[in-house]
Design brief:
This protein has about 400 residues and is α+β, with helices and mostly antiparallel strands. It has one domain (about 5-385): Cytochrome p450 (Orthogonal Bundle). It is about 50% helix and about 10% strand. The chain has helices at about 15, 20-30, 50-55, 70, 80-85, 95-110, 115-130, 140-155, 160-175, 180-200, 205-210, 220-250, 250-260, 265-275, 310, 340-360, and strands at about 10, 35-40, 40-45, 135-140, 280-285, 290-295, 295-300, 305, 365, 385. It has a five-stranded mixed beta sheet with strand order 1-2-3-8-5. Strands 4-10-9 form a three-stranded antiparallel beta sheet. It has a two-stranded antiparallel ribbon with strand order 6-7. The longest helix has about 30 residues, at about 220-250. The termini are far apart.
């Protein structure tokens, strides 16, 4: 790939401000594979071609997700290490280990009662809306999307509020890279308390099902499944809700039609999953040996990152009308595809519907929005909105 000074910095504010222009420029300059940096001094290859991405995602023999060889080459204070480091879970494993973890996770998630989940989202959304509906303004990331996503994930995992707060503080330390080592210790301690609680008081929740699965995961393994469920659940779900709201509130194709009934919230979710997926660049793999892809030699054990956002908008496959089209890669593909897409769709759709039913005249308070820098997510720093002050919502 190119020299280090040619690499596109995925963590820069400039990239966050207009990633789609960056993807177009990279595609024009490099073709399907572009040299990037995930953090200062952390080179990677970004996949921009839909077909190349599908090939890589379905080839775990040549492109395993286990980062341990790469991990040994980066410093302990690397800012992306807490997100990418090896853990004994399905996301960061390969071969038989991956199959064992994946089976346990899939079984635990597939047993979620989606009808009950609908009621859970409403029970959480309504009190949140009622904390700001009488004020006539709100900031929807901190006052709605994040607390809703976090509380829903806690319910799915059977995590009580007091442990959930510890998990929140620890997760922030880990994924913001502020004090990852301390955060990892805090997170393990909080989740161990959750396991002890679920052994004493089992419930209809994902944690209990993981503990009782025939794969016989030990405590450390269950904890690391839960780490992924929190990390992959809260941030992407929050971003999916917020990015879809931005589309609905700012794009005439959706605003009037969604509220008027000719386009569904599900259509808006799918448009966002095509154009601004909540995890824009992810599904990181590490080739076992140097490999030639699209006339480019990829080094062994060098991060290969799938740009879901770029691949979904690849001119070779993009279509003008995406209504009802769910061929995007936002959930990944192959053996590491997200196993929780049905609950995620339901939570995102219900969260948006509850908000727009309660506050149908919602509109952005500011014309310009700021996107959070970072190599992986597509996330707003805030979404301030205004609306006519409304009495407490009673659905």
């Amino acid at each position: 790939m190119g020299a280090d000074d040619d690499r596109v910095l995925l963590y820069s504010p400039e990239f966050a401000a207009d990633p789609h222009r960056a993807y177009r420029d990279m595609r024009a300059r490099y073709g399907s594979l572009a040299p990037v940096e995930l953090a200062p001094g952390v080179p990677a290859t970004l996949v921009l071609s839909y077909r190349t991405a599908v090939r890589i995602l379905h080839d775990p023999q040549h492109f395993p997700a286990d980062p341990r060889t790469w991990q040994s080459t980066v410093s302990a204070d690397c800012s992306v290490l807490p997100v990418l480091e090896w853990r004994p879970n399905a996301m960061r494993s390969a071969g038989a280990e991956h199959a064992r973890y994946r089976e346990a996770n899939t079984a635990a998630i597939n047993a979620v009662d989606l009808h009950a989940l609908h009621a859970t989202v409403e029970r959480i959304a309504v009190p949140l809306i009622n904390t700001f509906c009488t004020a006539g303004s709100a900031e929807l990331v901190s006052q709605y999307a994040f607390p809703l996503a976090f509380e829903v994930i806690n319910v799915l995992l059977g995590c009580p509020p007091e442990i959930g707060q510890e998990v929140a503080a620890a997760t922030a330390a880990v994924f913001d890279g502020v004090d990852a080592e301390v955060g990892n210790r805090m997170l393990s301690a909080a989740l161990l308390r959750l396991l002890e609680l679920k052994r004493a008081e089992p419930g209809e929740d994902i944690t209990t099902r993981l503990l009782h699965h025939p794969a016989q995961l030990d405590d450390a393994e269950v904890i690391h499944q839960l780490v992924v469920l929190y990390g992959a659940g809260i941030e992407p779900l929050q971003n999916l809700i917020i990015n879809s709201l931005v589309l609905i509130l700012s794009d005439d194709r959706f605003g009037g039609n969604v509220l008027g009934g000719s386009l569904s919230t599900r259509d808006a979710l799918d448009e966002v999953l095509f154009t601004d997926p909540p995890m824009a660049n992810f599904s990181v793999t590490y080739p076992r040996q140097p490999i030639l892809i699209d006339n480019v030699w990829l080094p062994a054990h060098h991060p290969v990152v799938i740009s879901f956002a770029a691949c979904n908008n690849d001119p070779a496959i993009s279509a003008e009308n995406r209504n009802g089209n769910r061929s995007h890669l936002a959930w990944g593909a192959g053996p590491h595809a997200c196993p929780a897409r049905s609950p995620a769709y339901l939570i995102g759709q219900d969260a948006i519907d509850q908000l727009l039913d309660a506050l149908p005249e919602l509109r952005p308070a500011e014309p310009e929005l700021t996107w959070r820098p970072g190599p992986f997510h597509r996330a707003l720093t805030a979404l301030p909105v205004v609306f006519p002050a409304t009495p407490p919502w009673r659905p």
